[in-house]
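Ticket #4471: structure output looks truncated?

Reporter: J.K.
Steps to reproduce: submitted the chain below (296 residues) through the standard prediction queue, then opened the result file.
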Amino acid sequence: MESIIEIVIRIFLCKFDHFWHEWVSALGEVQIKKSLTVPPVNEVEIIYKSQNFLVINKRHDIVINSDDPSVKISLQIQLKELFPDLVNPNLQHDFYFVHRLDYATSGVICIALHKKACAAATQAFSERKTKKYYLALLRGHVACERMDMHKAIGEDSQQRCGNHRMCTLSDPHCVYPRSAHTRLLVLQRGLYDFYPATKVLLRPITGRRHQLRVHCADIGHTIVGDYTYSNRRDVLPHRMFLHAFRLVLANDVEPLCLQTHDPFSSDVTANKWTPVETLNHIDSASFSKLDMEGDS
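Returned output as attached by the reporter:
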C-alpha cells in the first residue's frame, strides 16, 4: 500500500504535469499570434523575375493573402509595396498566385505576371506536370531510407469549423477522403535540440491540404515545430521545419526549374540541428530517387 507521502507526491506530479501542458499550449498560441506581425516588407527574397513569372522565397509564418482586415502582413501586401507596377486591380488579391504554401511553411512560390502565364502554370499544376520538393526535419529516426505514403486524406470532422485540420482515412473522424501520395527520402539522421530527428526530402505527388504534414504525422514522425499535428505540444521550436526547396514548373509559356538555399543547415545555430549520419545529399541523385515511374 502507498504511504500518505507517496500519495501526496503522486497527486502533486499529476497536477504539475497538467499545469505544464496547459502552460506550454498557451505559450504556443501566443507565439503563433505574435508571428503574424513579424515579417517586414524588406524580408522578401526574390529568386527569379521575368516578363512572365515572379518567384519568391517565402519566409515562414506569413500568409499568402487574406480577406481578414486584422491581418496586417501578408505576401500580397509585401509584393504591393515592392512591385506596385505589377498590381492587377482587376484581381481580388492583386496578383496571380498560381499555387499556395501553408502559413508556417517557407520556400518557393510562383506568381504569374499575366493571364496567359497564369493559365499555363495553373494547367501544369492541375495536370500534375510540376515537381515540388520539400525539406523537413522530422521527430525521431526514420528507419527506411525511402518510402511511399499512399493514405487518403480527408477533413477531421471534429475540427471542420476550426483550423481545418486534416487526417488520414484510418482516422474514425475522417470525412471526404481523397487519394494522396507522398514520397520520402532520408538525407540525414541526427539530433534536434539533443532529441532524435531526421532530415528528409519530400515530394508530394498529389496536392492535398496539409498533405506532407499529415503523412509524416501518420507514420509517427511529426515535423519539428508542427503545432497542429503534434496535438499542440511541439511549441518550443522557433518555426515549423518544412520548406518548399525546389520547383520544376513545365509549361508552354516559360518552363521553370528553381530552388533556394537549405534553411535547415547545421551551421545555423537557431536550427539546433546536429547530423550524425548522412545517407543522401541534396543533389540531382536524390531528386532522381524521388522521380520514379508512376507519379500520377
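Triage note (M.O.): checked the attachment and the full C-alpha cell line is present. Residues 11-39 have pLDDT under 50 and may be disordered.
Status: closed, working as intended.
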